[in-house]
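Re: [ENG-882] Designed sequences occasionally contain unexpected residues at chain ends

Forwarding the minimal case from QA. Structure tokens:
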């Protein structure tokens, strides 16, 4: 999150606020799950029911915010590739702020949160697939156009930096979508099967393994994004170098 704030300050890109929101949501998932794990390995603890309800609501709300932030990141990258010349006019600070405020107001509303988890997963997955396929189609047209220009001897053999950046961003989005699918799909399929046939699938498997697998997506998101995005990786290395200088 700190690296993204530095990058936003340097580049001025408002779309990076969606990625920053994803990092914050994933960090909140990590903090809340740490409390659950601590209870598993500590002495028997019997908190009041309201405490358990609030903590689980916080976990699920943070997870829902992470999923919705992934959708916003994918939509932002799709808009950047679909309308590259109008992107900075369309993605303003006000519009980004309204979307983020609406996201957080929504995930703390019980009905909306249940809709995201129970109904929204598969539409979100189909939306991811559609956005990525559309980005892939647009990128292939761009690449074909670049090859035609190079063949005519007009580009000097160097692709435009904007197109190169879009291709890298599209690759990052594809990796995030793939990890999201692998992490959450088993949980939702098993939950649907368990709802239809309670004896067909052990509830403990869903609770102890598949749900935790879905939460692991919040660990993968920042690791993958910081690894695949060169700008974020550079900011992290500069932060580490600054900390090292201060310590030594």
């Amino acid at each position: 999150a700190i690296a993204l704030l530095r990058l936003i300050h340097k580049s001025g890109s408002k779309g990076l606020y969606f990625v920053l929101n994803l990092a914050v949501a994933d960090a909140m998932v990590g903090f809340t799950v740490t409390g659950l794990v601590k209870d598993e390995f500590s002495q028997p603890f019997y908190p009041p029911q309201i405490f358990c309800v609030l903590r689980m609501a916080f976990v699920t709300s943070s997870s829902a915010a992470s999923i919705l932030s992934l959708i916003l990141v994918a939509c932002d990258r799709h808009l950047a590739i679909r309308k590259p010349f109008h992107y900075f006019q369309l993605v303003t600070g006000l519009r980004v702020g309204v979307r983020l405020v609406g996201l957080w107001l929504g995930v703390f509303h019980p009905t909306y949160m249940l809709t995201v988890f129970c109904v929204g997963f598969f539409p979100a997955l189909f939306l991811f697939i559609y956005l990525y396929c559309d980005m892939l189609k647009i990128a292939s047209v761009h690449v074909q156009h670049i090859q035609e220009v190079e063949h005519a001897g007009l580009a000097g053999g160097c692709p435009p930096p904007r197109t190169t950046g879009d291709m890298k961003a599209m690759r990052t989005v594809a990796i995030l979508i793939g990890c999201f699918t692998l992490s959450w799909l088993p949980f939702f399929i098993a939950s649907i099967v368990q709802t239809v046939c309670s004896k067909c699938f052990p509830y403990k498997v869903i609770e102890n393994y598949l749900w935790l697998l879905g939460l692991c997506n919040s660990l993968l998101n920042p690791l993958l994004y910081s690894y695949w995005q060169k700008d974020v990786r550079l900011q992290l290395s500069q932060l580490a170098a600054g900390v090292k200088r201060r310590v030594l």
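QA comment: On inspection the terminal residues look reasonable. The chain has a mean pLDDT of 80. Proposing we downgrade this to a documentation issue.
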